[in-house]
Amino acid sequence: MPRSLADQTEAELGGPGSVLTRQRRDHVRLDELLHELDGSSGRAQEEVLQRIDRLVFAHAFAEEAVLWPAVRRVLPDGEELTLRIEEEHQEVNELVAALEEGGPEHPQRPARLARLVAVLREDVRDEEDVLLPRLQERLDPHELRRLGRQWELVRRISPTRPHPTVARRPPGNALSALPLSVLDRTRDWVDAGVRRAPERLAPAGEAVSRGLASVAALVERMPPARSGDRPPTSR
């Protein structure tokens, strides 16, 4: 039976550049952030959630664009395995979008937060215990490092916000990646400026952020962004 990534050394995973090592490194960081989220409230909770979002959405996009197509190529049951993960990613998108739309005072916020944490932890276990060890059996360390370079490049230029209507598979996710990444990362920069100087930048900055969010919503609803869709992996 394949061993979980959590139980393997870095060398066993293919070295520091292996896609398996890079995946596990992000998972460790996510676990730290989820512990930080536990018991937080108010502005502190919002800031932790934003850091989780920036980590999770870029990570998942790189998986969907680079890693899961490789899984479907080399594993006979790759379609079934990746569809399960894509459904988890979709639920995370929908939960984070609902949290953003509802705001901090929404009565369903505690339940949505609890479900978000549960889905994120389930996703990590499905990847580290089931899917990625199966991929490891089929690829040698050189191939794992090559995938790792591709994954890291895509992760660095991926969207950082929830986009529930975008397809979780190519070509839709690839076609929407550039405009959504530019919009998301610009919005991240604007929001960070507002947090640093709310008295001076809040009114104008919040208006700009809302405008960028509206443009992103238009992009993600365009037909090319839905191509390659697999219900129920987009709204």
Outline the structure in words.
This protein is mostly helical and 235 residues long. Helix content is 74%, strand content 0%. The chain contains 8 helices and no strands. The protein has helices at residues 19-37, 42-74, 78-102, 109-138, 141-156, 172-196, 198-220, 223-226. α1 runs antiparallel to α2 (42-74), α1 packs antiparallel against α4 (109-138) and α2 (42-74) runs antiparallel to α3 (78-102). The two termini are 36 Å apart.
Strand content: under 5%
Return Rg in Å: 18 Å
Which class best fits the helix and strand makeup?
A: mainly alpha
- The total count of strands amounts to 0
Mean pLDDT: 94
The count of helical stretches stands at 8
Low-confidence stretches: none
Residue share in helix: over 70%
State the end-to-end CA separation: 36 Å
Order of helices and strands: HHHHHHHH
**Tell me about the biggest sheet?**
none
Gross morphology is globular
Descriptive key words:
235 residues, mainly alpha
